[in-house]
Amino acid sequence: MPEHEPAVPVRETAEEIATMEIRGAATIASAAAEALAEQARAAADGGPTASDPAAFRASMRAAARTLRETRPTAVSLPNALRYVLQRMEGDDVDRLRRSVVDASGAFVRQLDRAQEDLGRVGANRLADGDTVMTHCHSTDALACIEAAVDQGKSISAVVKETRPRQQGHITAEALRDAGVPVTLIVDSAARRYLDEVDHVVVGADSIAADGGVINKIGTSGLAVNARERGVPIMTAAQTIKLHPETLTGHTVEIEMRDETEVIDPEAREEIGEVAVENPAFDVTPPRYMDAIVTEQGQFPPESIVTLMRELFGEGAAEPWAEP
Ligand SMILES: O=P(O)(O)OC[C@H]1O[C@H](OP(=O)(O)O)[C@H](O)[C@@H]1O
Questions:
Q1: Residues 6 or more apart from 61 whose CB is under 8 A from it?
Q2: What SUPFAM superfamilies does the entry give (predicted)?
Q3: Is the pLDDT confidence value at 322 over 50?
Q4: Nearest-CA neighbor of 309 among 250, 248, 252, 251?
Q5: Cα(78) to centroid(ligand 1), Å
Q6: What is the pLDDT of residue 323?
Q7: What is the pLDDT, as a whole number, of residue 314?
Q8: Alpha-carbon Rg of the chain, whole angstroms?
Q9: ipTM (interface predicted TM)
């Protein structure tokens, strides 16, 4: 089987995911599904892949591998690739192309619907007059707060800036646009402000079979503090965040990012011989999380395995693997 260089839009999307120009687990998933549709169009358009179904399929698998290799932690990415590639079918290139483009469109529509549905579920947990605390920027978490506002509830927010990349700024802007009064704080002020907060709402990049929540670094400390203060904490996560490989004992790889996100080169030079580490995510044990809110309703973290089995079976196929 010849090596296939993915089409330009796939390489561009992969680069944007790796550099976090495209970021957030749900956004990464829809960008990856759309990139596969672009690959299908390009592969059907010319060259050996346009007339050879086997070459077309191989080019789709190669594109999926390129996208898969960008970032390791958010399972929404491989789940998106699986969804599209498992629906690739047909004996000729035209049918194959159509099946990929249709599956990609269906995936993205499903993603949007799921976010709307989970938003309503999460909103039901919030009461009029509540103050919520957020961590990082999660479109699933925002959907819950925005749905509560749409239900006519008055909600305020304490937004953690979320070092090192300060995605909290994106959350602050989004909430401000939704008419939510926002107080932006540094991460280390979170415990102090928990006394003024009714709910903590976070997203997830992956959810493990034991109910462990893998989310932006700092989530686990926030959850432990919230429990100590008696503030309920929920994770808003569409079911594409469920990590099927954890059903068979695999752990979720935590992405380690570059030290330049933590410290600028000049300060680094001055500090000299010390190690700098930059894990992007951590794991919150299920006992510190009150609920996982999905488009299928809310679940105690320990029971999420039942939903995972129902949706993903016992394993996780890798339809992008080389034959
Ligand atoms: O899918 P949605 O809810 O938008 O985001 C889920 C999570 O993805 C983000 O990761 P990163 O910023 O890509 O590292 C954050 O950890 C956020 O909580």
A1: 85, 319, 320, 321, 322
A2: NagB/RpiA/CoA transferase-like
A3: yes
A4: 248
A5: 15
A6: 76
A7: 63
A8: 21
A9: 0.98
Q: Which of 135, 216, 217, 278 to mutate to test the pocket of ligand 1 (most atoms within 8 A of CB)?
A: 216
Q: Closest ligand 1 atom to the C-alpha of 255?
A: 14
> Which member of 136, 144, 282, 290 is catalytic?
136
Q: What is the pLDDT of residues 144-175, one digit of tens each?
A: 999 999 999 999 999 999 999 999 999 999 99
Please state at what angle helix 53-68 crosses helix 25-45, rounded to 10 degrees: 150
Strands (E), the chain: 131-134, 156-160, 182-185, 199-202, 206-207, 213-216, 233-236, 281-284, 291-294, 297-299
Instruction: Specify the residue for token string 């979720």.
Output: 252
> What are 271-282's pLDDT values in tens digits?
999 999 999 999
Is 71 within 8 Å of 18 (Cβ atoms)?
yes
Q: Is 136 a catalytic residue?
A: yes
* Chain mean position to CA 200: 18
Number of Cβ atoms within 10 Å of the Cβ of 196: 12
Q: Are 114 and 69 in contact (CB under 8 A)?
A: no
Q: Which of 140, 205, 282, 290 is catalytic?
A: 205
How far does residue 278's CA lie from ligand 1's centre (Å)? 16
Interaxial angle between packed helices 93-124 and 25-45, expressed in degrees from 0 to 180 and rounded to the nearest 10: 170
The answer on whether 113 is annotated among ligand-binding residues is no
Q: What gap in Å lies between CA 315 and CA 26, rounded to an integer?
A: 22
Residue 96 has pLDDT above 60, yes or no: yes
140 catalytic, yes or no? Answer: no
What residues flank ligand 1, with Cβ below 6 Å? 23-27, 136, 138-141, 167, 203, 205, 215-216, 280
What's this model's pTM, rounded to 2 decimal places?
Answer: 0.96
DSSP string, 283-312: EE-GGG--EEEETTEEE-GGGHHHHHHHHH
Q: What is the mean pLDDT of the chain?
A: 96
Element (H, E) at 231: none
Of all protein residues, the one whose alpha carbon is nearest to atom 11 of ligand 1 is 24
Q: How far is the CA of 115 from the centre of ligand 1 (A)?
A: 13
